[in-house]
Amino acid sequence: MAQLDLSEILDTVPYAVFIKDSQHRWVYGNAAFRELIGDDFLGKDDRDLFGEEQVQVFWREDARVFAGEESLNEEEIGENRFAITKKVPFKLPDGTTGLLGIIIDYIATSSGELDKKVPAVDLGGFEPQMTALKRRLEEALREKNLAIEVAYTDAATGLRNRHGLEADLARQIAVADQTGRPFALALLDLDNFKRINDRFGHAAGDEVLKVIGRRLKEIPSVISVGRIGGDEFAIITEKIDQTDEARNERLERLRQIIFRPIFAGDRELQISGSAGVCIYPADASTGSELLSRADMALFSAKRSDQFSAKIFDSATLVAYQRRIQIEEKLPEAIRNGDIVPVYQPIVSSTTRRAVGVEVLARWRNEDLGLVSPDEFISTATDIGVIGKLDRAIFSQAMHDTRAWLENGQIDFVSLNASPMDVVSPGYAADFLRRLKEAGISPDHICLEILESSIVEDVSSARRNLGKLRDAGVEIALDDYGTGYSNLRALLDMPLDKLKIDKSLVWGIEKDDKVLDLVISLVQLGRALELTTVAEGVETNAQSAFIEGAGCPELQGYLFCKPQSRAALDEWFATQAPAAEGSGESLKSPV
Ligand code: C2E
Ligand code: CA
Ligand code: CA
After folding, report:
1. Rounded-to-integer distance, Cα 445 and Cα 166, Å
2. Which of 139, 231, 436, 454 could be stapled to 190 by a disulfide with Cβ–Cβ 3.0 to 4.6 Å?
3. What pLDDT is stored for residue 349 in this prediction?
4. 581 in any annotated domain
């Protein structure tokens, strides 16, 4: 027998049935209720329909019902319209108490059409029906086998869902407009949630969501907390702190909430995430604008590694719009050859002469100006055109650097590889084929890879890199000292070089610990028979420390900035010649 759908049954009864949550919001209404009040009521409350005075009357009565009483009332709900309403307490699936209401009749004397006037009233035989209905509804909701859903609650956490949060936002905007008090919307996104789900199972994932939700609700001055996406939360908070200090304190609190370990079963889980914050009415004027701008702030916060929070400001909007433009223009720029290589020498620390050049991509666009690689490389990766970009740079670089290699001005050309490519099947074969076409020997090529490409897929990375290295390509680990620094993975990889990250180089002068770390990285390199290169060398002091640590190769603005081919030709010419001759006479070495 087909199961009866309670909502269908309720739609056929001649009286209006509705459910309100503890905040007076309608979360369910049957067909008769919709006929009375209109279709667009979910998540709204009496204030959306009635005058303030009337609302106060309704809400005083609601409050008594939430507290456990029942109520019966005849009320004027519009011009010449009366409703006889019975309300009883009603347990909602999230454990809170709302109310179940039945409007047993109404009068519309003006139209004369709906004049089933019931005298104010002896409910008599109706009482048991109401009790039965309440029992049935509560049970059906609890067991979730009902087409009536409480439309504004997230089942997993008991928080508001996206609809609910949007309704709360609309309400809060109305309140702010009336009281003149601003409020904030924060979006919070967990970083490694998917990994927790994959590794520890969905029960652990659900526990994380619940715990975070509970913690967010405990923040003082929070008005509403919702889960609006898989691992995305939204928080509406009350008053706004005017000073930067107070704001930072609040963000720090948010950080602590997320970072506090979560215990799921016998596991201790560490969570990280990012937050974007936006303020009404300063930053946006509607609910959807608030959401999208908080999202922009979140987006820009996510760019940094660990937890970070960003407050929406005009710069966020500009950055976001720039990012959208970069996304739009990038594919065409690659096709048109607008992305061009520049070259930065890598010098020997003993002779200070160039031993190689690193190829770095540059993009100047009419509208966007100079776009930094940190902007367009990550965008290219996100939209899946990084492979194309690297191949375009590759062929220009092979063309540009040929003469330097042939003249012996450099021994090698160093290319940056995108982590995605390094683990993709066939990468090595394709790379070697392109080298052959360009007529450049693999012995003259160094490929700079990031630790992240290794940890992503160790076996694919090892396969590709092994093939390249067998053919004579040197492999350098870029940005060394900042990443996962997994020594095991490092020892397993076919590597020739370690490039010590510029952040460490810059820390040497300020912090002895950093110097010790750099020294030990150089020693590690020597023990593993790897060449070490220090990048980002800007001062003589840095250079002296690094040489002292025994690092054989250096790179940085101290020696030469990244330059076009023509400019670097001139730089080579000004370099002291290796053994004999005058630098000036080598102006054009070809
Ligand atoms: P990276 O591979 O670590 O490159 C070194 C970055 O440090 C370059 O930034 C370089 O211009 C900069 N640099 C070098 N010496 C100094 C110095 O003394 N002081 C300072 N302040 N900076 C110095 P750039 O060119 O902006 O590139 C940023 C990152 O973008 C690169 O970091 C690399 O990861 C990526 N990238 C650049 N070009 C390409 C490319 O063609 N393909 C791929 N896949 N990635 C690229
Ligand atoms: Ca590099
Ligand atoms: Ca680097």
Report:
1. 55
2. 231
3. 94
4. no
At 133 the pLDDT is 79
* 48 carries an active-site annotation: no
Return the beta strands (E) in 483-544 as ranges.
497-500, 531-534
Regarding whether 338 and 287 lie in a shared domain, the answer is: no
Instruction: Return the ligand number nearest the Cα of 414.
Output: 2
**Residues whose CB is less than 8 angstroms from the CB of residue 241 and which lie 6 or more positions away in sequence, other chains included:** 247, 249, 250
Closest CA to 462 of 499, 417, 495: 495
Instruction: Return residues with CB closer than 5 A to ligand 3 (ion).
Output: 478-479, 535
Whether the Cβ atoms of residue 46 and residue 59 lie closer than 8 Å to each other: yes
- Residue among 21, 62, 189, 231 flagged as catalytic: 231
Q: Whose CA is nearest to atom 45 of ligand 1?
A: 416
Show which of 312, 347, 364 is a domain's final residue.
Answer: 312
Helices (H), 47-182: 52-66, 126-142, 162-179
Q: Are strands 81-91 and 97-108 parallel, antiparallel or unpaired?
A: antiparallel
228 in a structural domain: yes
Closest ligand 1 atom to Cα of 537: 18
Q: Whose CA is nearest to atom 24 of ligand 1?
A: 373
Distances in Å between the Cα of 201 and the Cα atoms of 192, 233, 248 are 13, 20, 35
pTM here is: 0.64
Report the pLDDT value the prediction gives residue 92, as an integer from 0 to 100: 77
The answer to whether residues 26 and 19 touch, using CB atoms and an 8 Å cutoff, is: yes
Tell me, yes or no, whether 267 lies in a domain: yes
CA distances from 445 to 11, 189, 490 (A): 74, 41, 21
| Best residue among 359, 416, 418 to mutate for probing ligand 1, ranked by most atoms within 8 Å of CB | 416
Low-confidence ranges of the chain (pLDDT < 70): 1-5, 77-82, 93-95, 105-128, 141-151, 239-242, 304-307, 455-456, 483-489, 576-590
Is 356's C-beta closer than 6 angstroms to any atom of ligand 1? no
Query: How many other C-beta atoms are found inside a 10 Å radius of the C-beta of residue 441?
Result: 13
Strands 369-371 and 267-269: unpaired
Centre of ligand 2 to C-alpha 448, Å, is 6
